[in-house]
Amino acid sequence: MKNAFILLCGLGLAACQNDFLDLKPQSQPNVDNFYQTANDFGNAVNGAYDALQSSNQYGGDFNTLIEARGDNVLDNDPSSNAGLRYNIDRFIEPTTNTILRDTWGSLYTGINRCNLILDKIDAVAMDARLKARYKGEAQFIRALSYFNLVRLWGKVPLVLQAGTTTDARSYVRNEVTEVYAAIEKDLTDAAANLPASYTGADIGRATSGAAKGLLGKVYVTEKKYAQAVPVLREVITSGTYRLLPNVADVFNVANKNNAEIVFAVKFRKGVGGSLTEGHGLWYGTNIGDNIEPTLRAAYPAGDKRLPLTVQIPVPSNVNVVPRKFYDEFSATNDVGNDFPVLRYADVLLLYAEALNEVEYQAAGEAFQRLNEVRTRAGVATYTASQLATKEAFRTAVINERRLELALENDRWFDLVRTGTAVDALKVTNITVPPYRVVYPIPQSEIDTYNNPTAFPQNQGY
Fold first, then answer.
1. pTM score, two decimals?
2. Is residue 441 part of a domain?
């Protein structure tokens, strides 16, 4: 999708000012002139997907900000990059940490691209179904971006239209409930606008099932379990997705867009030059194992998911990488794993969790869905005598999520939303001040806005 990114850069749409959330394009006339045809909007939508590929998002930094922050991965290199990643892993990052700044900016860059599409598309004549699809894709990407923002930082500016620098000066940190309401609306609209599937080169784009699945995840995060149940059930009963018999096959780079992938950020290695669509090794290391020992210890004997956490060597490279994200380098020195944002196994576990929270039922459907995941992993299923209460089932399903979704940027968010982050990190000998369950707002934003009332720093920083 980088071809669209280069095009947008040439038109002044991707380069933004350095302050006020990077939301105002430098060249407004070029913006107005660009959005004229269906093809223009197709390129613009590709540019919105491109933001997700950024090394500051799914291309790399999310692995530090989300996975390493939890109890699955550890950073054992305090000297690298002046400790930028190590400090995040150890909960000692300052407000000036540049990873925070760059990820914040990347997320709002993607949001701005979606806003421009949604602001301008209704005025352009094109096939109605194609217009609906483009709107749905922009709504989905904007919702996903805000979902990550609100979980990382709490209150964030809610910007739903492309604005001017003057507009940006008035932005405030909106309440978390306002941000979630906008996410819910975008995903509800996206589910109505998007097709159930694609063919050919369009396979891998956001679908109605992806929008519904992500909406269900949002509802579970908000503890709106009664609303989560029907929307997740729709994804399950659609017949579109299934668990692959062999869990390792889900991550095989030769088996992308398989039936278990609800939505993934797509990458492609070997493109090279300014159009590169690959990435570096995820969780690669050459100074010892960086998988937290408590993660591997949590797997039952014979669990088929355990080998996916084992570090294996990469040919012609000094690093080792977890088998889950193994790929060999291309001639342009990159790899091309897709990043699974939402899998069918995740949907099943979210659904089981929501059912249990609505009403615990001994040997009910929640047990069935949880046990589907365990059966595929080759471990014993749970019985009602083992999980005899709502609380026991809740603990089991959150633990199952850790085992099933390890290294997929879910664990930290699961710990935060269940209020167990502080206790979980104690087991790894890390003391987490409670205020650090959200990150500090990048200091550059605090300094630029200079408004402690409307744009304050998060408490404790």
1. 0.94
2. yes
